[in-house]
Amino acid sequence: MSKHGKKYEQARKAHETGNVLPIDKALAKLKDLAYAKFDESVDVDVNLSIDPDKGDQVVRGSVTLPYSKGRQARVVVFAKGDYALQAEKAGADVVGSDDLVDRVLGGWTDFDFAVATPDLMGIVGKLAKILGPQGKLPNKKQGTVTFDVSQIVKELKQGRVFFKNDKQGIVHFSFGKASFDNPKLRENLVAFIKALVAAKPAASKGKYLKKMTLTTTMGVGIQVNPDELLS
What we know:
Elements: H1 6-13, E1 20-21, H2 23-33, E2 41-48, E3 60-64, E4 75-78, H3 81-90, E5 94-96, H4 98-105, E6 113-116, H5 121-124, H6 128-131, H7 149-157, E7 160-164, E8 170-177, H8 182-198, E9 209-216, E10 222-224
Parallel strand pairs: 1-10, 4-5, 4-6
Antiparallel strand pairs: 2-8, 2-9, 3-7, 9-10
């Protein structure tokens, strides 16, 4: 028995899975097949030639998308004094220290990114079990643990987003909305793929970008050739 609804099955039948389409045709097809009543996200899954169990082959990085992802990110900052003022001026949605920690401990996580100054990581560490699984815990490697709070807040507000491979060696990434026109979606996708290639581990062997599939939130997957975006 199918796990999907009637509309999904209709969309699946309208596209022969396994066929590799040119990028522009794939984007047009995705939008034609989108059937949800909300503005679906447009996502890409990239299978990489890495061993995700080896630390020297982990893929992580960030990219500032030319057209963001459809809405401005909500950013909170754990900071005090002048750093708190800098964060507020840069456009942070919520700024605080112990009070903000208590708020998150109370169950509030209605934000996309959290930034912290290094001197407050002692108290922010209390939130590891809450924010860690959500990917929102400030992280030095991502640049979200820093005294330069003004710069990182501006970058996050301008559309900087992070990516990392999962346990199967696949990177899942959302690069826009179905309501975006195709040129904007393509530019966002190209920016992401270039950042992904730049993050290639030296230990990775063989063809790095093995397989790439585009989909919408509720839609079917359409396979494309990643090399087309690098030419």
